[in-house]
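CO-FOLDING WORKSHEET

Operator: S.A.
Ligand of interest: adenosine-5'-triphosphate
Run index: 274
Mode: holo prediction, single chain
Checklist:
[x] sequence pasted
[x] SMILES validated
[ ] output reviewed
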Amino acid sequence: MLLLDDEARIQSMQRDRWIDYARASAVLHLLGRLLATPERDRMPCLLLHGESNIGKTQIVRKFIRDHPPSFDDRRGVEKRQVISMQMPPVPDQHRFYSALLFEIGAPHNPKAGVSVLEGLTRALLRAMKPRMLVVDEVHHLLAGNYREQRASMNLLKYLANDLQMSVVLVGTADAVVALQTDPQMSSRFSPVELPRWSESEDFRRFLHAFEKLLPLRRPSSLAQRDLVRFVLATTGGLTGAVAQLLTLAAEIAIRDGSERIGLAHLEEVAQLAA
Ligand SMILES: Nc1ncnc2c1ncn2[C@@H]1O[C@H](COP(=O)(O)OP(=O)(O)OP(=O)(O)O)[C@@H](O)[C@H]1O
Ligand SMILES: [Mg+2]
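OUTPUT RECEIVED:
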């Protein structure tokens, strides 16, 4: 990578990359434990919450990459342990079932009524026997009125109970608020937070790992105290903002030939954004 020309190196930074960090590993470990839970009446469920741009969806993606579908040769069907979907922006049951059917690759008539989609979804899921359903953007629940919220939550409870799979909800603090309106939901879903970064050994490790993936020819030593503090102050400790700041700073460092990120590069990006 280091041998490529400037444009190619800048281009290479546009790709999503996964960086392991302590909190993410801990969440992945929890998800792994849920997935390994044998079928039982009350399946454990999880609510992963954190601010927008903190890295929730990336964790879900990583988990799914680590647990890809397998093919059952004997029965000739695809076996998917984990199904992931997004809560539709307007949480009505019809849209929810449509989104879920789309996710499992089941063609259906979009004009069909809720009860038809519901029956189809249940029958397919019973046959597929997934062990986990991940629903991202679950704060969209709050976009519905009280009745719609109730209906969506009942649906999630039903899926967890009847199909005996773990349900993992992912969303912002609004998702926590939505769940708190239903004692059954809030007792059932253990909350796990993905917090903003603060000045810590974990954050310095994250920066170090990020630096190692940058196509710069000289070391930047991002874990230095003044750089760490500047990054935290500018990004509010949001993983996505940190990634963007460093990527833009690296781009400037390639273009000006310095090949390492210094405080001046970070300040330049911060000023552009301001
Ligand atoms: N483990 C990681 N390694 C590298 N970059 C990451 C990682 N996690 C998050 N990021 C960066 O943060 C950005 C935002 O992450 P993500 O989309 O997962 O946030 P989110 O919490 O799902 O936000 P929203 O609530 O708005 O959907 C990613 O596009 C990526 O640039
Ligand atoms: Mg997301």
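REVIEW:
The chain has two domains: 37-193, 197-273.
The longest helix spans residues 146-162.
[x] output reviewed
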